[in-house]
Amino acid sequence: MAPVLYRVNYERGRWGESQILPYGPLELDPAAKALHYAQSIFEGLKAYFVETPTPVVFRPEMNWQRLNSSAHRMEMPELPENLFMEGLFAIAGLNSPLIPRQSRQSLYLRPLMYGTQQGIGLASSDTYTFMVIASPGEALTSQLLRVLVEREGSRAAVGGTGNVKVSGNYGASLRSTAAAIRCGFDQPLWLDALTHRYIEELSIMNFFAVIDDELHTPELSGTILPGVTRASIIELARADGIRVHERRMEIDELLSLINSGRCTEAFACGTAIVVCSISTIGDQDGQRYELKEPCGTVAERLKQKLLDIQEGRVADRLGWMCCVPAHYCPK
Ligand SMILES: Cc1ncc(COP(=O)(O)O)c(C=O)c1O
Questions:
Q1: The whole model's pTM is what?
Q2: Relative orientation angle of helices 60-73 and 81-94, to the nearest 10 degrees
């Protein structure tokens, strides 16, 4: 982990003074609400420093808005935008010597907020901590994903917390992930909890398929996390003349379109991996569906377009990149 963190506490109904501290273990009351009732939310985004004069952060206002949606859902206080941005800038800036100045490398920023009040009774916390920590991200690989359709377990139910980034969603996904790995796959492919017929997403990535040269992705139904990368891919694809359909996608329909050769590519996208092609979709009956273009020409083109913007090789016409002010960076 990067050696410094940003912290600001909330008490008596207001956010206090922010601090930069050495990275280290927390002191947390054993009865803190976050530990018992999961008032714990987080975000994930990256700082890039490849061909720009200062480090840049990708669309951070979207992560700030999503953090506050998560806070709202979990009965936690909103965080003002200036504190979110100050935390990102301070941690990206102070750690800028750790950001590899190479393509496909970055510093991963992890803002998080949790309830700190002591109390065994089920109620929302009166006190909170917001932090930003960072970790030099692993270089992106061009490894292909193998996903296993999850026909029993569910990630998110209607009215639940699937469309926000709350820690409990991820803990609850681990058992299916472990089962998928035991069967020789990398990740489960989640379906809707009610009927187990419609594709939702992966545990930390959104899902796309290329069918008849057009892009299809599950619509944001309220149980899918609205990914920043997903939104960006949709914009870039449309600007590139590719038709994009956000719709309910039935898993059995997709599997037969793979068999008939009309679905040529499938890929996952998210901050961590940007875009990653899927080579194989496995089903619980042991069937494996191999994608015709496992190295994904559409996926690769969109990934390169996104990386060109993030790494500063092309003009940022859409205003997606946010420069870390120079005074946050050590000389
Ligand atoms: C469940 C889930 N879906 C999708 C994504 C991709 O979102 P983003 O592109 O904002 O990283 C993430 C990662 O945050 C996630 O946790």
A1: 0.98
A2: 130
Question: Is beta strand 145-150 parallel, antiparallel or unpaired with respect to 274-282?
Answer: parallel
First-to-last C-alpha distance (Å) of the chain: 22
Is the C-beta atom of 205 inside 6 A of ligand 1? yes
C-alpha span between 38 and 16 (Å, rounded): 23
User: Does any ligand 1 atom lie closer than 6 A to the CB of residue 204?
Assistant: yes
Express each pLDDT in 256-308 by its tens digit.
999 999 999 999 999 999 999 999 999 999 999 999 998 889 999 999 999 99
Q: Which atom of ligand 1 is nearest to the CA of 232?
A: 9
Dist. CA 167–CA 159, nearest whole Å: 17
Q: Is 257 in the pocket of ligand 1 (CB under 6 A)?
A: no
Using alpha carbons, list the distances in angstroms from residue 201 to 126, 131, 242, 285, 300: 34, 28, 21, 20, 19
Is the C-beta atom of 236 inside 6 A of ligand 1? Answer: no
Please state which of the ranges 90-94, 122-126, 178-182, 293-297 shows the lowest mean pLDDT. 293-297
Ligand 1 atom closest to the Cα of residue 225 is 3
96-118: average pLDDT:
96
Tell me if 63 CB under 6 Å of ligand 1. Answer: no
- 31-63 tens-digit pLDDT: 999 999 999 999 999 999 999 999 999 999 999
Question: CA distances (Å), 250 to each of 149, 160, 196, 262, in order?
Answer: 12, 21, 9, 15
67 pocket-lining for ligand 1 (C-beta < 6 Å): no
pLDDT at residue 120, as a whole number: 97
* Distance from residue 142's CA to the centre of ligand 1 (Å): 19
Q: Do residues 310 and 322 touch, judged by C-beta distance below 8 A?
A: no
Longest dimension (CA), the chain: 61
Ligand 1 centroid, distance to 43 Cα (angstroms)? 9
Question: Do the strands 321-323 and 56-58 form a parallel or antiparallel pair, or are they unpaired?
Answer: antiparallel
What is the predicted pLDDT for the residue at 137? 78
